[in-house]
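Field log, afternoon session.

UNIT: design team B
ACTIVITY: writing a sequence onto a fixed backbone
BACKBONE:
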């Protein structure tokens, strides 16, 4: 009679041991860190005019994924190039622009039309940039611009001096929710009306970081915006001479724009340009 009692008493113990083993295995699984899924990054490789594929732009990079050259082609032949060089901190230090057509018109032996150089502050922001036209042999060959920023890192003001500092003008940028919504240029006796910008707040600008690092428009102008641009209006003293540009997009599965429909209208004419965009994604 004792043996059956011994057998039945071991069953709860076996169940407990099994339960402990199961819980232990669960704990081990929970302790195993989940694989981190990195977001896909896409770098522009080629843009082209959908109406004329012989007009296109290519992008080249070094082993550190830094932009080294932008080449514009017309009828399959390079017409203009922007060549990038970097400082010891890996920031854009110099951009040299060559232009095939202008080199013929202006007699430029090395095809160099413009040279930009950049200085940075301790926060990695462009504090000063210069643009130099080596073929223009006068005091207007060099322009120097200083930059100011707000506490969020947005470039709020630039001051450009020309003619060896004898003349200057300022550009002021206004931001809202991470987007540049207004640009005001003060050129003294030749005032320029403000430009207003609108955005698609439902679409993140996936090229924001790329543009902020490499785009000449943003290296020398406003901080790249958080959302995709939707419309811009350049105003004039005579409203009939205002110019309006509207953008709509198509996107790839990673949220990068693959086609831009840019519809524009001014006092003289109007039209739509369609640009297709290709990437290398990883």
């Amino acid at each position: 009679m004792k043996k059956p009692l011994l057998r039945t008493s071991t069953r709860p113990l076996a169940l407990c041991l099994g339960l402990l083993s199961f819980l232990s295995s669960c704990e081990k699984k929970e302790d195993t860190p989940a694989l981190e899924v990195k977001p896909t990054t896409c770098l522009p490789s080629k843009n082209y005019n959908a109406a004329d594929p012989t007009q296109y732009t290519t992008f080249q990079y070094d082993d550190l994924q830094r932009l080294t050259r932008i080449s514009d082609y017309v009828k399959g032949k390079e017409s203009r190039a922007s060549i990038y060089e970097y400082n010891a901190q890996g920031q854009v230090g110099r951009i040299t622009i060559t232009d095939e057509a202008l080199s013929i018109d202006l007699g430029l032996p090395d095809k160099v039309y413009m040279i930009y150089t950049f200085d940075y502050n301790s926060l990695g922001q462009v504090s000063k940039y210069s643009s130099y036209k080596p073929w223009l042999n006068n005091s207007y060959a060099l322009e120097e611009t200083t930059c100011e920023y707000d506490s969020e890192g947005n470039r709020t003001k630039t001051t450009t001096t020309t003619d060896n500092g004898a003349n200057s003008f300022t550009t002021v940028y206004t931001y809202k929710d991470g987007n540049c919504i207004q640009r005001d240029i003060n050129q003294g006796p030749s005032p320029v009306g403000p430009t207003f910008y609108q955005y698609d707040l439902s679409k993140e600008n996936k090229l924001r970081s790329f543009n902020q690092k490499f785009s000449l428009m943003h290296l020398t102008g406003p901080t790249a915006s958080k959302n995709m641009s939707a419309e811009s209006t350049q105003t004039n003293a005579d409203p009939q001479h205002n110019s309006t540009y509207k953008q709509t997009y198509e996107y790839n599965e990673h949220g990068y724009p693959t086609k831009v429909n840019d519809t524009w209208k001014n006092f003289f004419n109007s039209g739509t340009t369609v640009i297709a965009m290709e990437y290398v994604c990883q």
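LOG NOTE: Residues 1-29 have pLDDT under 50 and may be disordered.
NEXT ACTIVITY: expression trials, pending approval
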